Amino acid sequence: MHIPTALVRANNSVGGSSIWIAVFISLVLMVCPLAYIYYRRQWNRREMQMDDHTAALLKRISEFENSQKVMQQQAEFQQKIIAAIVHGIKSPLKYLTLTGKQLYNMSEGENTLRDVLRSMYTSSHHMYTFTDNLLQYVKLYLQDHKPVLNSFNLYELVQEKVLMFTDIAISKGDVIHNKVPATLMIYTDRQLLSIVVHNLLDNAVKYTSHGTIILSAFAVEKRIHVAVQDTGIGMDEAIFSRPAGFNSMEPGLGLVITRQLLSMINGRIEIKSSPEVGTTVILIFEE
């Protein structure tokens, strides 16, 4: 029987295609398991690496937490030590201040003795107020104090400070005027602002003799300005031009504390001073 040549060629072509398909399928069946094994191993390796990274991260977190606990314990210990030291200094200083004041008031007519007692009284008073300010600042710093904002009468706060410094000012021949408007309200942290005003008034009294100290305040373009002006010896520009982060026990430490406290309540400070003319310190707060 004769088979057409075309049909034979077609059958051969189909047979060849079937072989190639079979070979392809066989290769796929061989490669897929190998590829699966390869990628599975890669995945397992990555999982192991992730586990190692996670374990290392957890270890670091644990070490950090332990370090934080140690630092917290050290901070608490330092706070107790500093508080004990400052309290230990405050008590004799307060007694010395009161004794100096009594002796000064009793020494009428004895000029030389009166001058000595006045120096003792003023020096002990300034040491006491500085120590008290430092204690308040240390407490706020170590306790990570967050400002408590509220509205209060600024005149009343200033008047509290004026009364505290009236006796020491009189002993130096100074006069303190509170010219803050009686109804002016301010919105900030009262405790922090109280420390700032106390510190500025203390400096004004310290460096002014037989002069005038004026505390005033006014509102300009939604800002409240609080000014402390004196007719004292003035301030060295090197002191008030120091950066806010300056860390030193040299004169000017009170100014550093003042700047840091102001930064906590969104306030800023401007200082104008001339030797033998006086100093004007202006605190500026956004309403």
From TrEMBL:
SMART domains: HATPase_c. The keyword Transmembrane helix applies. GO terms for biological process: cellular response to phosphate starvation. PROSITE patterns: HIS_KIN. Its EC number is 2.7.13.3. GO terms for molecular function: phosphoprotein phosphatase activity; phosphorelay sensor kinase activity. Keywords: Kinase, Membrane, Phosphoprotein, Transferase, Transmembrane, Transmembrane helix, Two-component regulatory system. The chain crosses the membrane at residues 19-39. Residues 84-287 form the Histidine kinase domain. One of its GO terms (cellular component) is plasma membrane. It catalyses: ATP + protein L-histidine = ADP + protein N-phospho-L-histidine. This is histidine kinase. It comes from Filimonas effusa.
